[in-house]
Design a protein that fits this description.
Length: about 300
């Protein structure tokens, strides 16, 4: 039965990603180690942790005003908040909490509407704005439709136009190849999210597997974030060790959000940050920008 189940789920990108996380082992390095600093410098602002919220959407089914509660939790933890698809009024409520928020806009078919959403995000004083490029297509190869809203793929030229439409940093979410990473640089993006959107495509390469190649290509030109399957401070450490600047936590905060609202979110972020600090201390990693990638060892098959 176990073998059949493994065969059945061999295509599941989330399971593949979890297996890859768990295949990465760590050396211990104690001599000359210090109490580590987990502070994140991003877009000229300082945060206490590289554990960010994911670009979630429609959390009212989890808790009343779920997106706003998540933002309050991120604010209390001095963490970066993200906001996905939602009405303009919701984004206004999110940013009114004071949480420094990155607003991710879907690749709507109507480019004028995208520009209006960028302008609205600017008016809400968000930290940055961006686009979820991996939501262009459905599994049938046709353009996606999300909650009645039609999506389309976007050309490099169109993305350049969106980036030129704002003075804010523009972040591209859904990068899972060197090819797209290079195009993001060419377009003038100020950050990318390495992600397969929680398994939007079967057999997708785990973000941490492609991350070192993308890090080498980007060469510190812009921040690199990692999304998908992050469940602990240990997962955060592994992403940072392989070159990420910060990491998004999504589904791991849903149960705390449901149970305790903003306080639950804050507690989960702080828990993961303490776990991260614990691993940093035991690997001679003084801060999140100085984690030696050679501390990572790959488990033999």
């Amino acid at each position: 039965m176990e073998n059949k189940e493994n065969i059945k789920n061999a295509w599941d990108s989330n399971e593949i990603t979890r297996d890859y996380f768990d295949s990465l082992l760590l050396e211990m390095r104690h001599i000359d180690s210090v109490i580590p600093c987990t502070k994140l410098e991003l877009f000229k602002e300082t945060f206490d942790t590289p554990v960010m919220m994911a670009a979630l959407s429609h959390l009212n089914s989890i808790r009343d005003n779920g997106m706003v509660e998540m933002a309050r939790g991120a604010l209390a933890a001095n963490a970066v908040n993200w906001a996905g698809m939602g009405h303009e009024a919701e984004l206004e409520s999110i940013t009114a909490t004071g949480a420094r928020t990155i607003s991710i806009i879907k690749p709507y078919a109507d480019n004028d509407y995208i520009i209006r959403r960028i302008e609205h995000a600017e008016s809400c004083n968000v930290l940055a704005v961006g686009m979820d490029v991996d939501h262009s297509f459905g599994a049938n190869g046709q353009y996606d439709e999300v909650l009645g809203e039609k999506m389309t793929s976007k050309s490099l030229k169109e993305i350049k136009e969106f980036i030129k439409a704002t003075k804010l940093p523009f972040v591209i979410k859904g990068v899972l190849s060197e090819q797209d990473a290079y195009k993001c640089l060419e377009a003038g993006a100020k950050g990318i999210v390495v992600s397969h959107h929680h398994g939007i495509m079967n057999y997708a390469v785990p973000p941490l597997m492609i991350l070192p190649k993308i890090v080498k290509l980007i060469n510190h030109a812009i921040p690199i974030f990692v999304d998908c399957g992050v469940m602990s401070g240990m997962d955060v450490f592994k992403a940072l060790a392989l070159g990420a600047d910060a990491v998004s936590a999504g589904r791991i905060i849903l149960d705390p959000l449901k149970a305790d609202g903003a306080a639950g979110v804050t507690k989960q972020i702080e828990k993961m940050t303490k776990e991260l600090a614990g691993v940093m201390a035991r690997t001679c990693s003084p801060d999140i920008r100085h984690i030696d990638a050679s501390v990572i060892q790959h488990k033999s098959n």
